[in-house]
Amino acid sequence: MGHRVKFKLNGRELEAPEGQLVIDAAKEAGVEIPHYCYHPALGNPGNCRMCLVEVAGAPKPQASCRTSVRPGMEVKSDSDAAKRAQASALELHLVNHPLDCPVCDQAGECGLQDYYMKIGRYQSQVREDKQHKEKRIAAGPHVMLDQERCILCTRCTRFVDNVTQTHELGIFQRGHAERIELAPGMILDNAYSGNVVDICPVGALTDRDFRYKVRVWYLDHTDSVCPGCERGCNISVHTNTQRTWHNDGKRVARLKPRHNHEVNGYWMCDEGRYGIADLDADRLGKVLSLKPQKTEMSWEAMASELAGRLQSAGPGLAVVASGMLSNEDWAAYKALFVDALKVGKHFFSPEPDQVGEGDSLLRRKIKTANLRGAEALGLRSGSFSELETMLESGRIKALYVIERDLYRIYGDKAPSLLSKAEATVLQGPNKGPLGDHYTYRLPATAYVEEEGHFTNFEGKVQAYRKALEPIGESRPDWAIFTLLLKALETRPKAVLA
Fold first, then answer.
1. SS3 for 149?
2. b/e map 264-302, b = 16+ CB within 10 Å
3. Among 121, 222, 384, 406, which one is least packed by beta carbons within 10 Å?
């Protein structure tokens, strides 16, 4: 990019790097120029012709996604000539587009709807019948294709060609018969397939998991960080609390990627996107003592009783933790288990249940968000084979499990291993298959019900925000640790001695 030069946009004198695209320079100046085909990460084919602007000295309107900033140039995106050109391009996109907005999932966030209301509202020049194409094509496990709604912006084909390089989609036929189709013998099942729904400006590509679940204008949006792996992709959590009977009663309707050039760009993987299905399943909402019989307790009573049992276990206390803990959680964890209880055995390594496939684009093999937060505090993890040996030998008197499912680690041996300890604690959002085998069950908030920070594999500390209210009596992990620490500090001196 060249040095900064002066140019005029809609009568305003601005500065931009010489050679920068006019559409980008306008966006930086707060001026939106309509567009469909252009995407910062996918290039500028210039085929939609929606971004036409009037350039002084040019014989006709120019595509702003193909025109570079030059010293002294004058550009108008709001002149009568520019608006006529944009409206004419929009009408051509609508020639064969079905008028099915009331039943289209894209309604409310559709580029055709938005631009028609801004620059359209014209008396149509078209009288012929609309051309019909294939509808409701299951393109892959997550994506539905409707060819009638497609405006041939080619964003999706450029994504599978240039980003994932998997080539499942292509443009077939020519001229009036052109359409997006699956390549012969292929389905859209790459690890990033959901992104084609995000970049589709109309309702041609929709999410099969989201279709007909909830209207987008009922959704609330909260900035967050994906906990699916150690990259920490920036996301937006779309929650459904205004119409609780929609979306099958699920509070989180969908996750969308949020642009961060340094972390995830414009994308997120399908593992992270669709990893929310069981968020509210089998949730813990009450503080319970399960042995000798199930008894509901207050947080204060539990803290007083449990603090004594943890303290009496002495060196026989071991803790299993999860990489889902935030930096705030890890700090409180250290204050309780390391500084106060002097626990020597911690187990939070990602083996074997938190290791999966990775790639060179975004996905990391470690499928948990914040092990780096524990490492930054000097915490070190033992192996789960060592934990198994210690449990089998009876060396562990008390076992405290935080947001981990031991069944995924030990399988059918897990209940027997838990029975070896005199006292066991499960702290987390979900009950899991072993929930009834513990001595105590403490409800913790899910990551969408709290705010905090994760540290990704590159050491970047990123904030996530609270999107939902906690279920039942659940509290953030750091608050539970702090409550137990306070109970330890207020125990009678004779007991502490």
1. helix
2. bbbbbbbbbbbbbeebbeebbeebbbbeeeeeebebeeb
3. 121
What is the rounded distance in angstroms from the CA atom of residue 409 to the CA atom of residue 412?
9
Question: Which residues have a Cβ under 8 Å from the Cβ of 135 and sit 6 or more positions away?
Answer: 146, 147, 148
State how far the Cα of 304 lies from the Cα of 299, in Å rounded to an integer: 9
Return the DSSP state at 283: B
CB 23 within 8 A of CB 35: yes
How many residues are recorded in the chain? Answer: 497
Residue type, 257: P
Q: What are phi and psi of 449, to 5 degrees?
A: -105, 15
Residue in 127, 51, 38 with CA at minimum distance from that of residue 89: 51
Other Cβ atoms within 10 Å of 18 Cβ, number: 14
Pairing of strands 62-63, 74-76: unpaired
DSSP 206-267: EETTTTTT--GGG-EEEEEE--SSTT--EEEEEE--SSTTSGGG-SEEEEEE--BTTTTBT-
Q: Which residues does residue 122 pair with via DSSP β-bridges, in sequence order?
A: none
User: Confidence band (pLDDT; 50, 70, 90) for 276?
Assistant: confident
Tokens of 246: 């929609």
Cross-strand bridge partners of residue 14: 7
Opening angle at CA 275, ends 269 and 280, nearest 5:
155
Identify the CATH number of the domain defined by range 288-496: 3.40.50.740
Query: For the segment 55-97, what is each residue's pLDDT rounded down to a tens digit?
Result: 999 999 999 999 999 999 999 999 999 999 999 999 888 888 8
- What are the domain boundaries of the chain? 4-94, 288-496
Q: How far apart are CA 207 and CA 167, in angstroms?
A: 19
Task: Map residue 344 onto helix, strand or coil.
Answer: coil
State in Å, rounded, how far the first CA of the chain is from the last one: 70
Per-residue pLDDT of 372-385, as tens digits, reads 999 999 999 999 99
Helix, strand or coil for residue 72? coil
Span 189-200, pLDDT tens digits: 999 999 999 999
For residues 225 and 369, the answer to whether their CB atoms sit within 8 Å is: yes
Q: pLDDT, tens digit, for every residue of 26-41? A: 999 999 999 999 999 9
SS3 category, 397: coil
Q: Determine the residue type at 46.
A: G
User: What pTM did the predictor assign?
Assistant: 0.91
Closest CA to 41 of 24, 17, 26: 24
Strand pairing category for 74-76 and 4-9: parallel
Give the mean pLDDT of 250-262: 95
What CATH architecture applies to the domain 4-94? Roll (3.10)
340/159 Cα distance (integer angstroms): 52
Q: Which helix (H) or strand (E) holds 302?
A: helix 299-313
